[in-house]
Structure formats: C-alpha cells, structure tokens
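hey can u check if this looks right to u? its 185 residues, i copy pasted from the old doc so theres a chance i mangled smth
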Amino acid sequence: MTGAGLYYVWSVSEQGLWTRVGGWSLAALYALLGAAAGAAAGFLYAAAATVQHLEQALRSSLHALPALTGVDRGEAQPISHIRDQYGSLVERWMGKVLDRLWMPRWLDALIRSSVREATVDRFIASCEQRGLTMVGSHEFRNWLLAEGAGLGFLPVHNQLFWWRYLVVGLLGLLALLAVLLAYWA
C-alpha cells in the first residue's frame, strides 16, 4: 500500500505544490490503511489458527469422553425432542473447553453459536436422512466422534477465511487505484 502511494507521489512530483501535498497525503493515508488492514488480516489469521488449535483440542477431548452425561438415560428419544437437549449439552461441553483458552469475546461467541447450531442441526439432518425417528445418546456421541467436531467448526473457518480475503482484496483494490491514478496523472 505504501509503495503504491509513494509511486503516485513520484509520478506527480513535478505537477505543482498542491499536487505533491495531495500525493503525500495519499501516501500517508495508504500507509495508515495498509498498517491497519495488515493488522486486521494478521489478527484474522491468528483467530483462524486459534480455531484450528481449538478444534484439535476438542477432537482429542472427545475421544476421552466415556459417555455423554446429562443426556444418557439409556432410552432412545424422538428427534423432535433432542434439539434443545443436545444443544445445551454441546454448549456446556464447549464451555468447559473454551474456558481453558483465552480468546477475544467476539471469537468465543462466534465459536459457541456456530458450533452449537451446526453440530446439532447436522446431526439431526443426518438422522433424518437415515430415516431414524428415535435417537439414543450413544448415537450422538458416535456421530460427534466420526464427523461432528470438524463440521461444527466449518462455519467459523469459512467466516474467518472470507473476512481475511476481503481485507486483502480491498487492500489490493486500493493499491490498484493509486497505480491507476499515477498512470492517469
């Protein structure tokens, strides 16, 4: 960004005092925008790495679960009754894991809501696709072990991915704008 701003300053350096002042102002603005957007992109990259680390920690702790306490009554329940029950179970379980890691509040809220909704909704959709009307807690645990943890984090990964590339894309467009201004000047 700063390079594009300096290229513009160099291209208009012989066109008068006010044009040079405007050019240096543009270069300073681009340097500030580049630093802020670079920090935001780095922050989003660090958030994605944190989510990746959290997903690995959840996967390893999932294998250590002996049974899903609080839900395991030994009997199957209708699918229509399990959404809130399993949602609160996932929320409680995520709370135990997330409380051990420090992360920004917005990332914590994003992870909690995305993982809860995606995990329970996809489990219920999986049961409905298989034609199940009654589900036991052992099936939820087995589904979580097989694919639930990765699918629950997929929306969080996607959001962080797209925000990071949006920031980098906007930086690229602004740099291209400065180069085009230098070309037309």
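The helical segments are 2-11, 17-63, 79-98, 105-129, 137-184.
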